[in-house]
Amino acid sequence: MGVKKIAKRKLVRLSALGVATVVALPLLMGCSTAASSSSSDSIKIGAFFPVSGSLALLGEESWRGVQIATDLRNAAGGVADKSIEMVFADVPDVNAATSEARRLASDSDINLAVGSYSSGLSLAASEVFARGGSTFVELGAVSEAITDRDYENVFRFNPAAGSFTKLQMRFITEHLAEELGKPVSELNVILAHEDSAYGQSVAENAVIDAAEAGLVNFSLEPYNAKSTDLSSTVLRLKAKAPDIVIAVSYAADAILLGRQIRDNGLQLGAFIGTGGGHSLKGFHDALGEAADGVYDVDFTQIHVNEEFTPGITEFTAAYEERYDSLPASGHALANFTGANLLFDILEETNGSDDPEEFRQAAQNFKLEIGTTSSGWGFSLNENNQNELADVYVMQWNGDQLETVWPEQAAIRAPLPATPFGV
Predict the structure, then answer these.
(1) CB burial class (10 A; 0-12, 13-18, 19+) of residue 34?
(2) Which of 60, 71, 185, 295 qualifies as a FRET site for 37, CA 20 to 30 Å off?
(3) Cα–Cα distance for residue pair 184/382, rounded to 1 Å
């Protein structure tokens, strides 16, 4: 998107981080739990992410994206000449999300909060803020319920669960059916999903989208993500002889499911992950070449058409400079993009976090697709869901998760492959 002047202030709008020199700016320690300075010269924003417990891996990745966005924006002058102060809360479970939300919401200087990677955590924390009349902006969780509760001050800037299943069904009907040499109506497709709010939300949307796509042989296979043995699930899949398996998994169960598909000789025409564990480098590290060819539908990854995602190279450089590694998943980029969208909207309110002013500014704020570092645009629907945030199809190739579909985001075409080497 490049440099865009904001009325009377000439600040850089950084949703796309279109200025490469911004990475050379020092990374400031703008994210802390310290007491705030006067609200006249800073904006305090609550930040809820799980950086301990079972959700810590992707929770930490999500928080890193917010930290980078905050530090770069503060280095570029802040928002409306105010510094941004993220007041962090570690929320490893729903109880913690509720109690920490009550704690931060009781601070008269905090009228706005972001989070939270996990749908369960988001539902809990946003409920507290919404009932208290404050604003909550979700940057990563996907459950449809987050924005379906008629709370006028709960927003989501990232894609919802329905985006994942809609794209999966399009990919199956527009690409995989021809590749597998079968009419759509004859394809046998099974969704194997972990059974928490995350998996259930995806499954509910998948049933609807599969029917609309003409996939008459579509079924569900739920399982417990905490299970240490998924062989019974794999054997049930094998008995149904699917052409395609779609999976909704966290980190450990994604690896376990892949291993047991391999070990039980389940032959598939294609395997499509739904973000989560299938986006992690650790998935490929654990399975090696057996993971090559596995598809994954998820938030934007760093191996993507850079013309469609202006600013992504600058984000990646900033991440490497701070953490001495590449991002572990697309969650850091998604939260980085979402945080910058939030800051841009706060520019429109002249730095005010008043819930009514923020809501009006957010509803009026518009960006075209292909103008942010995730490739997303921005336009809120009646439920405060960003309708122009989307997901893409990636495919594992060596240790890189490469974007392959649709064409405007892809760096190469999808390659036929036997999932898990079976």
Answers:
(1) exposed
(2) 60
(3) 33
Cα separation, 176 vs 270, whole angstroms: 8
135 Cβ contact list (under 8 Å, min separation 6): 111, 112, 113, 129, 153, 154, 155, 353, 355, 358, 359
Q: How many Å separate Cα 101 from the centre of its chain? A: 21
Q: In what order do the strands lie in the sheet with 217-223?
A: 217-223, 188-194, 244-248, 270-273, 295-298, 392-397, 400-405
Q: Which two tokens stand for residue 116?
A: 């939270």
How far apart (Å, rounded) are the C-alpha atoms in residues 280 and 292? 13
Residues of the chain predicted below pLDDT 50 = 1-14, 16-38
Token look-up 């609200």 returns: 39
Would you tell me the crossing angle of helices 312-323 and 331-348 to the nearest 10 degrees? 110
The whole-number pLDDT of residue 25 equals: 40
Q: Which residues pair with 401 in a beta bridge?
A: 396
Average pLDDT, the chain: 91
Respond yes or no on whether the N-terminal peptide bond of residue 116 is cis (omega within 30° of 0).
Answer: yes
Could you write out the three-class secondary structure of 165-227? HHHHHHHHHHHHHHHHCCCHHHCEEEEEEECCHHHHHHHHHHHHHHHHHCCCEEEEEEECCCC
Q: Cα(132)–Cα(355) distance, rounded to whole angstroms?
A: 11
Token pair for 204: 């509910």
Instruction: Return the residue matching tokens 């149904």.
Output: 240
Domains and CATH numbers, the chain: 20-159+305-390 (3.40.50.2300), 162-298+393-421 (3.40.50.2300)
| H or E segment and range at residue 296 | strand 295-298
Q: Which phi and psi angles does 222 have, rounded to 5°?
A: -75, 155
What's the one-letter identity of residue 211? Answer: A
Angle at 335 between CA 130 and CA 28, to 5 degrees: 105
265: burial class by Cβ within 10 Å (0-12, 13-18, 19+)? exposed
- How is 20-50 classified by DSSP, letter by letter? GGGGGS-----EE-SPP--TTSEEEEEEEE-
| Predicted pLDDT of residue 251 | 87
> What would the pLDDT profile of 161-213 be if each residue is shown by its tens digit?
899 999 999 999 999 999 999 999 999 999 999 998 778 888 999 999 999 99
